[in-house]
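Please predict the structure of the following assembly.
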Amino acid sequence: MPNNKYDAIIIGGGHNGLVNAAYLARAGKKVLVLERRYLVGGATVTEEIYPGFKYTVFSYVVSILRPEIIRDLNLTRHGFMTLPLESTLTPLPNGDYLYRDGDHFRTMRDIARHSPRDAEAYEEYSREMYFMAKAVKYILGIIPPDPTSLNPKDLLGLVGMGKHFLGLGEEKLYTLTKLMTMSAADFLEQWFESDPLKATLSASGIIGTYLGPRSPGTAYVLLHHYMGEIDGAFRAWGFAKGGTGGIANAIASAAREFGVEIRTDAPVAEVMVKNGQATGIALENGDEVQADIVVSSLDPKRTFLDLVDEAHLPDNLLMTIRNFNIRGSSAKVNLALDAAPDLACMPGFGPHLRGAISISPSIDYMERAYDDAKYGQFSRQPYIDMIIPSMIDPDMAPPGKHVMSCFVQYAPYKLREGTWDEQREALGKTVIDTLSEYIPNLKDIILHCQVMTPLDIERTTGLSQGNIFQGELSLSQLFFLRPAAGYAKYRTPIRNYYQCGSGTHPGGGITGAPGRLAALEILKDHS
Amino acid sequence: MPIPTPFYTRTSALCESHEWRNWSGYFAAGLYEPSHEREYYTVRNAAALFDVTPLFKYEISGPDALRLVNRIMTRDVAKCAIGQVMYSVWCDDDGKVIDDGTISRLAENRFRITAADPNLRWFQDCGFGLDATVVDVSTDLAALALQGPHSRNILKAVVSEADLDNLKYFRLTEAKIDGFPLTITRTGYTGDLGYELWVAPEYAERLWDILIERGQGYGLAPAGLVTLDMVRIEAGLLLIEVDYISAHKAVIESQKSSPFEIGLGWTVALNKENFIGRKPLLAEKETGSSWQFIGLDIDWQSLEKLYGAVDLPPQVAGRASRVALPIYKNGKQIGQATSRTFSPLLKQYIAIGTVESRYAALGTEVEIEITVEYSRERARAVVVNTPFFDPERKRV
């Protein structure tokens, strides 16, 4: 029997679990990562579901992976690379389109076709969002201080934060407050009149959220997506070489180099607790592994309600976690294509195929898509965010063939009628029908289609309800409230039991920030 | 006014940016798209096509060809097998570098040399008394560099009569594409898997068209000098006139460099038969060089701090810069960074340059000048090994 004692065990081999493990091992800890599936990555996986075609099964774009993580873990040497995703095309039902890319004046000209005022407003808007992202980015990098605490560290943190926000000046503070409270639609209404532009920008406010563009609070989610940062430039999105699985593999490789042991096909049944202290874990196969530190990268529901006996937790925390909003709202459709898709609005080959294609013609369209979901149906005409990974990274499909990744919203986890197993096919058909209106040759070139409903996302990754952010990014669930007041600093009521998933501050997206910040906190307790 | 290369009909049709550089009197695309970003990643992710025709090319042949080439070059070219390519510098009588380039041994007594500057007269003068002919073949050969992880796959799809799977790093082969002949060398200026293709000008357009067409499925795209400059810094490769000055062009003695001073001491075969510059180089080897080539990793936290003081994120994204910056140690200038770039791949701000030898040890902490909002500041930097990026596929 090998030495069965570790300094730390990380439950879950998603990107945050792996980042956490790498940082702990880098600090000299003997670390074991336990992953339920046959491969690491969690929701950041690339799988060859159809021979020769690599699907970014769940997450598909990256922007906010913190650059310090890339440097600290030397991820480039382990194969990490983000490729630019330079454009966003919004095809319209009337055959027109809205096209924006890195070419400033070309983008202005195209917006001006829809509204000359919007073209100018776009520049001001981008500037304003730059300031907002900069203001909020500060929060992403700090451990959230608890405003109700009298602990000197919390007080110092609050003073620092207060200084930071007061330093923004009145105007920006007002805008920030608006962003925190308004709906994405109302916020954008202040700037723009063109419907396709408003709708496409509002999409960032609803992604992964069970809210519509007219729901208050969605403006913040919009900002959260604006913080995507590549090389110091905000709002830069990219595609990871090899798909998002490429990120997980790079982090795993770096972690292994720091000495981390990674076991796949190793589902954890429970965290062992003795005298209010975590002592290790028990695997589903009955094996037990001891460790001084146990870290869960799973979502808050699993971390608190599934992995530990409720007897070890205070009632108010259990209540908060039970009420924690983690509604799954999106689905994923992945396609293998025999040839390049041909868009009706922009026929032929071109750079637009290397960017995002957004089915978001109007705010009404988006809100109607939500209306269906509100009452337990998937959207009859869904919002779709599509990319063609093989156009960006030739290794994703055989030469001349392509893979297409379609993020679909809304697809509520809880259906009013029937089950997802019954409705999966209908959802796939709806998505393909919707896309075919804009891509006439689509149905002729589909070789294989994978539909991942929220139920499939939950079954495969373990994310409760298939929620991609491990809990919605609403104000009531952010910062010192994520996932619960008093437990926002990666600790739990059980000593030596920690959390490091997207369900903790600063939230979802492939940032690695929760994993890293949690590791820094853990190392304070176990230096 | 620059003149077009044989690929110009094709490159100009694709050059949306209309940003042209003058490379040795030829039009060379700076970048094709409005932004160089995708071209840059194409080199590391797929394959990029560069028009490198403006390189100077010479052929040396005749019974004394080997003797002549070995007299010019610091490398021991006698060890260069037929079908092999060597990188070397050549020096003046004082052991100062004139130029650098590749030597392809096409046959027992036939060599092809690439150079950045015109060298016909120098090579001919060096051959005084030897039975060897130096011919300038610069305009007889158009050249493309096909560089990146998919370059081999693309070539294999179009080439006949050549075994690319067994073509090793710094080897050459004759080949045919669509019936016309060309020479393929596994060389390049990107530090990645890559090839350079040498072809008669009349086949240039066909070569370009076939590569572009067949390369599409592999993500092939043309790339320009903006990208080339960034990737060659990542590869730690020098550029004449920027990282060193040719002994034939320097106007003061201190502008000249020996191979030892610019990181190319490994190309100097002091124990081979006499070659130009051997004696002073032998002496320098014994006494030690005053200067040494270094790679620098400019500390990101230090940059964040300097820019953070004026409430900005580090402003380094963009293209490579060839404007030299002073390097300091303990407040005293000890050298200069001659080329630098932000590496989008490594997320690092990197530079190459020369410093006084005593500060060249790996891990030495130095400071480099950074201008932050018009104010001259100093950022921390560490001497590191080059290449900064060195993928296995380059050699495998």
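The radius of gyration of chain B is 21 Å. Chain B touches chain A through 27 residues (CB under 8 Å).
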